[in-house]
Amino acid sequence: MICKTIVEGTTKVLVPVPPPDATFPPSAAAVFYNPEMELNRDINVAATAALVEKLLSRKGILREEIRYADAFSASGIRGLRIAGEVGIHTTMNDWNLDAFELIKENIRINGLEEKTLATRKNANVLLHEKKFHIVDVDPFGTPSPFLDAASASVQSMLSVTATDTAPLCGAHLNSGIRKYAAVPLNTEYHSEMGLRILLGACARELARHEKGMSPLLSHVTRHYVRTYLEIIPGAKQADRTLKLMGFSIHCPTCGYRESVYGLAVHIDMECPVCGTRTQIAGPMWLGPFREPDFCNETISELEVHPLNTKDKAKKLITFCRDELDIPMFYDQHVICKELGVSATGIETLIEAIKAYGFEASRTHFSGTSFRTDAPIDKTKEIIKAVSG
Ligand SMILES: C[S@@+](CC[C@H](N)C(=O)[O-])C[C@H]1O[C@@H](n2cnc3c(N)ncnc32)[C@H](O)[C@@H]1O
Ligand SMILES: [Zn+2]
Question: How many C-beta atoms lie closer than 10 Å to residue 282's C-beta?
Fold first, then answer.
């Protein structure tokens, strides 16, 4: 395997050089490394550092006692960065022999022998054998086969990446239903749908282990969903968590949408605005997908760590922090197309909605999306007005 050294944060990592004809990301390489995920890993360093501070100040744990599992480690890059840049003990695991050997070499290069352990197991075996404060699930594609073991192991924070965005957001419907036991809907807010379906699956897995969750931070791009879930142990916490599960109603004609909380619910099938038969997605997580205080603490951590993607990460988390807690965003372009008017700047629209006395915010999902508590017909009226 021909390798080169790259630097992320303050960590040096040997990664394989992909063959010249490799597709991207280079899945043909002996050990996986995707430079495009640096933003994801930088945010992971900052969010984990923020969680560690929370544990140290509120839970009376010593830094030396905190255990992090990088269960799908490949080159070791995530775990190495956590051990070196956050300073907590990390287990780096990968069942692939080339990966395991590379992890050990990368531990040596960074002089992190004291703070780390390399293992070569099926991630599910590792996570059923041992408990960790923080469990990082970063597999190829869907995390669904690993959520049970991760939920059994995790004590403080579960961090999950899902790259199977097509099943999650309804583009590959049956695959999504099989993996997440939920029905997604492929709408203009499919990216939020995917996040909420994933969060719902996590909430139900954790509940089976009598653990509740509180999402600290989540972000979605075209290629992946990433979420950080604080774990709150106890059957009562699990019950409280499940109360935030439910279904999302969507009208394909006028764009009306509504959330219905609960797992056994009666759903009125007709759109109250235009009378069309509505579509239903779920069960999914309908609660907040981030905590503003935790976003602020993560932003503060971004400031103190040397990170290449700092500005981009700050912008993303700031957007995420400032989103209203109203499920299922609108897309200005979709509404404008329906109305036959041209779109204005998104900030202008937000200000206009607020001027009418409603709440409104942008979202981190896309530059043309917004949230509001204004009813759909009122929102359309305002869009028409601002479009002249
Ligand atoms: C997407 S890569 C991990 C990328 C890495 N976390 C990073 O940030 O660069 C997934 C890795 O998980 C390993 N893997 C897949 N399934 C596994 C399993 N069931 N148990 C252990 N390792 C597994 C693969 O060998 C691969 O190296
Ligand atoms: Zn309708």
Answer: 25
